[in-house]
Amino acid sequence: RGGPVVLGIETSCDETGVGIVRGQTLLANVIASSMDEHARYGGVVPEVAARAHLEAMNPTLQAALDEAGIGLDEIDAIAVTSGPGLSGALMVGVGAAKALSVATGKPLYAVNHLVGHVGADVLAADSLEYPTIALLVSGGHTSLLLVRDLVGDVELLGETIDDAAGEAFDKVARVLGLPYPGGPQIDRVAVGGDPKAIHFPRGLMHAKDAEKHRYDFSFSGLKTAVARWVERAGDAGDEIPVADVAASFREAVVDVLLTKAFRACADHGIPRLLLGGGVVANARVREVAAERAAAQGVTLRIPPLSLCTDNGAMIAALGAQLITAGHRPSGLGFGADSTLPV
Ligand code: KG4
Ligand code: ZN
């Protein structure tokens, strides 16, 4: 398959990602993560992330070119995440992309991180049809999108009004004395736990919230409820039933995420749902999503995990589609925008 050769740079959070595609074909996807450096803080520290991007950028870029087996001169264009994300982190990627563009004379495309997550799907063998609903869940975002056209018509239906779902996993893991990142740990200890053992609150699911926040999420109340529950049990001298707490917490998150995603599918008459972001690694998310998709006649798409978590290939893939659709380059007059809308 042909198409433009695009190099994509992603630095919105703690992953330095450089990917290369030829049209819809993946040539390279290299990721350097600063996750280990954040572990002792229990979450991503923006300043640490920015510094790590700076150190990782050149080696990651070179590794991606090596993996693709091409030189910089064989690239047709450069794409970079300009937002949303952590300001200092984004600036490193944007700066690197601009420098590359000036040095090589190749056109530069600024792209939206969230739309990039959806764009990753074109790299799969049988890619998505539009319109589709997309649920993107990571440590930095929890967003529900209606994508009518990837390169021109993307609508934000809802998002978290406080913590991201991955952040809630990380914070609850900490309460349970589990290491960072918390998601995989919660998944691990929830095995054998009873998801119905404790009823934790489901944010923004009740009638009074139904209209205004129909597609929005809230996880900070849930996180606090788990912390209180564990604290009370500790005060009472009880042994904490870690497996039950983890399973019950996970069930609450999964229930809210998927109820709202499938509600969006039903409301808009769109029988397609794409999942993206690191939380999609969650075993229960996958299980319940598959069950509900079958029950509701929805086609479920989950790209391979290496394309679900933050990466440069998804940014390159979106860039290639912008070029194919005839979009003009962004030039150099844009900057990092931590709250860039879709
Ligand atoms: O997409 P991602 O790698 O990027 C950032 O947010 O930077 O997502 C990382 C997030 C973390 O909050 C992590 O705890 C969560 O995804 N995560 C999971 C699982 N694996 C990773 N959450 C729930 N269950 C998992 N198995
Ligand atoms: Zn992301």
Write a short abstract of this structure:
44% of the residues lie in helices and 19% in strands. It is of the alpha/beta class and 342 residues long.
Describe the protein in words.
- This protein has 342 residues and is of the alpha/beta class.
- The protein has two domains: 5-123 and 307-324, Nucleotidyltransferase, domain 5 (2-Layer Sandwich); 132-302, Nucleotidyltransferase, domain 5 (2-Layer Sandwich).
- 44% of the residues lie in helices and 19% in strands.
- The protein is built from twelve helices and ten strands.
- The protein has a five-stranded mixed beta sheet with strand order 3-2-1-4-5, with helices on both faces. It has a five-stranded mixed beta sheet with strand order 8-7-6-9-10, with helices on both faces.
- Helix 9 runs parallel beside helix 10 (283-296).
- Bound molecules: 5'-O-[(R)-(carboxyoxy)(hydroxy)phosphoryl]adenosine and zinc ion.
- The site of 5'-O-[(R)-(carboxyoxy)(hydroxy)phosphoryl]adenosine has 21 residues, from helix 5 and helix 6.
- Zinc ion binds at residues 113, 117, 138, 140-141, 277, 310.
Q: Keywords, please?
A:
alpha/beta, single chain, 12 helices, binds zinc ion, 5-stranded mixed beta sheet, Nucleotidyltransferase, domain 5, 342 residues, 2 domains, 44% helix, binds 5'-O-[(R)-(carboxyoxy)(hydroxy)phosphoryl]adenosine
